[in-house]
Specification:
By secondary structure, this protein is of the alpha+beta class. The protein is built from 10 helices and 8 strands. It folds into 2 domains: 206 residues, no CATH class; 91 residues, Roll (Pdz3 Domain). The chain is elongated, with a radius of gyration of 27 Å. It starts with a helix and ends in a 7-residue tail after the last helix. The mean pLDDT is 92.
Length: 344
C-alpha cells in the first residue's frame, strides 16, 4: 500500500468514525438531559480496549474496532428497569431517538456551509489556468496552473470563451500571452497546435479566478445545498421508478464503494457532508431496529394511549436488525463483485 493510499484510508476511516460518534453523541446528550441513565459511551466498537473513566454512572471507553462508536442506554429494551429508556415516557423516548439523526443532519448542514465557503466565488472577468498538460505548448512555454491570463496578442481577456476563440483563430501561428503570477506580470510565446489534440490547442484547462466569499453568502448557499441533497435522497426511489436514473446508478454502496468514491473526491468536505446527511436520513426511516423504527413504535402510545407490548417490539427490532446485517453484507459484497462505476 502506497503512503498516499494509506493516508487517504486513515482520513476516510477517521471521518466516518467521527460522523458515527456524532450520531451517538446526540443520543448520549439527549439521554442525560432527559433523565435517562447511560451505562456506557464507547469510541469504536467492542471488544473493549480500555476503560477511560466513569462519570455520573457512565463508563467512557475506547474499543478495538475503530469504525464509529456506541451508546449503551440503561433498560433500552426493558420497561421494567427504572431510569431506563424503555421505562421513560414516549415523549422522552422520542427526544432521545430523534437526537442522533438530527445531530447528523445538523453536522451535514454545517459541513455544507463550510464547503460553500471553501469554494469561494468565481470572478467572472478574470480567466485562470486550472491545469497544464505534460509536453503541451503551454508547459514548454512555462505557463503554470494558477496563472491568470491577462492578454493574448495584446487583446484583453475577460472570459474563458474569449480566450478559446482567440487561441483557435490562431492555430499554427505564434501568439503572445501575457499572464499574472502572484504579483508578477510575465509574457510567453507559443504556437497553438493544428490540429488540436484531445487536450486542446495549447494544453491548458481554463476557469476563473476564485476569491474568498463571506459567511453571509456561504450560510444560505450551504443550507440550499444540504436541502437539495436531502431532497435528492428522499426522491431517489421515485426517480428510479420513473426511469430518470438507472437502478445501478442509485444503488447503495458499502465501505469499499464509499472509499472508492472518496479517492475521486477533490474536496473531502463535500463527501462527509453527503455521508452525514445520508446517515441522518437513513436512520429516520421507519425500519425496525433503526431510530425511525423505534420512533414509529412510540406513536400508538402517544395517539392511542396504548403501548405495543415490549416483547413483541423487541422481536420485531431483532428481526429488523438481522435483515439489516444481511443487507449490509450483501451491499459490501457487491462492492467487490460489481464495483461502483466512477467517472474517469
Amino acid at each position: 500500500m502506497s503512503e498516499d493510499l494509506f493516508v487517504q484510508l486513515m482520513q476516510f476511516i477517521g471521518g466516518l468514525a467521527i460522523l458515527i460518534i456524532v450520531h451517538e453523541l446526540g443520543h448520549f446528550l439527549s439521554a442525560r438531559a432527559l433523565g435517562v441513565d447511560v451505562e456506557e459511551f464507547g469510541i469504536g466498537f467492542p471488544p473493549r480496549l480500555v476503560k477511560l473513566f466513569k462519570v455520573g454512572g457512565t463508563i467512557f471507553s475506547i474499543n478495538w474496532i475503530p469504525l464509529g462508536g456506541f451508546v449503551r442506554l440503561k433498560g433500552e429494551n426493558d420497561p421494567s428497569v427504572p431510569g431506563g429508556l424503555a421505562a421513560a415516557s414516549p415523549w422522552v423516548r422520542l427526544g432521545v431517538l430523534f437526537a442522533g439523526p438530527l445531530m447528523n443532519l445538523a453536522v451535514g448542514v454545517l459541513l455544507a456551509i463550510v464547503f460553500i465557503y471553501s469554494l469561494g466565488e468565481p470572478v467572472l472577468d478574470r480567466v485562470q489556468v486550472q491545469g497544464v498538460a505534460l509536453g503541451s505548448p503551454a508547459e514548454q512555454a512555462g505557463l503554470l496552473a494558477g496563472d491568470e491570463i491577462l492578454r493574448v496578442n495584446g487583446q484583453e481577456i475577460d472570459t474563458v470563451e474569449q480566450l478559446h476563440e482567440i487561441i483557435y483563430a490562431n492555430l499554427g501561428q505564434e501568439v503572445q500571452i501575457t499572464y499574472l503570477r502572484g504579483e508578477q506580470v510575465g509574457e510567453v510565446s507559443l504556437v497553438p497546435r493544428n490540429p488540436p489534440p484531445e487536450e486542446g490547442a495549447i494544453g491548458i484547462s481554463m476557469g476563473y479566478v476564485v476569491q474568498p466569499t463571506t459567511w453571509a453568502k456561504a450560510i444560505p448557499g450551504g443550507l440550499r445545498l444540504a436541502v437539495d441533497y436531502g431532497r435528492s435522497v428522499l426522491t431517489l426511489p421515485f426517480r428510479i421508478l420513473r426511469g430518470e436514473i438507472s437502478p445501478e446508478e442509485g444503488r447503495p454502496v458499502g465501505y469499499k464503494g464509499m472509499f472508492d468514491i472518496y479517492q475521486q473526491i477533490r474536496n473531502p468536505l463535500w463527501f462527509f457532508m453527503v455521508i452525514s446527511m445520508s446517515l441522518g436520513i437513513f436512520n429516520l426511516l421507519p425500519i425496525p431496529a433503526l431510530d425511525g423504527g423505534r420512533i414509529l413504535f412510540t406513536l400508538p402510545e402517544i395517539v392511542l394511549r396504548r403501548r405495543v407490548p415490549a416483547q413483541y417490539e423487541n422481536i420485531i427490532h431483532l428481526v429488523g436488525f438481522a435483515l439489516l446485517i444481511l443487507l449490509l453484507l450483501y451491499v459490501n459484497l457487491q462492492d467487490f463483485l460489481n464495483p461502483v462505476q466512477l467517472p474517469k
